[in-house]
Amino acid sequence: MNSVTELTKKRMKAILIDTAISTSVSFAGEPLLKGKVKSRFVYTLVSPTVIFWGLEYAQLRLNGQTIGQKMMSIEVQKEDGGEPTPEQILKRVVHRNTVSPFVYLKDRAQYDAYEGEKFPHGLHSHTVVKEVKNNKF
């Protein structure tokens, strides 16, 4: 079993940063939702998920990186370079947060060969994660 690559560590840190930001936004908006929506399911599960996915999508479309990715000097790109399309971003986000962990655990060695550039959701969406130089936060 290979050790975790530096790129993978940066990816993990970036997603933790983005999760912390999304969680803060969710907590801030929860009182507003509680007054408007009676279903606890909506503001405990649906709302945080929609906020997390929405923030990631918006940041990737507007800035090419999430805040966490920018802080870790990494970015999501098309396999052939350049910014991912809206469809690629959606495929990536949905796959990563649904089936990707199971696919990864089933055949981890396949993804270790990519040295952190690709995980199942990257293969599914035809995207890679690359380190970027001179990235100023």
TrEMBL record:
Residues 10-94 form the RDD domain. It holds the Pfam family RDD. It is found in: Membrane. Signal peptide: none annotated. The keyword Membrane applies. GO terms for cellular component: membrane. It comes from the Bacteria. Its main location: membrane. It is a multi-pass membrane protein. Keywords: Membrane, Transmembrane, Transmembrane helix. InterPro entries: RDD (IPR010432). This is RDD domain-containing protein. It comes from Planococcus antarcticus DSM 14505.
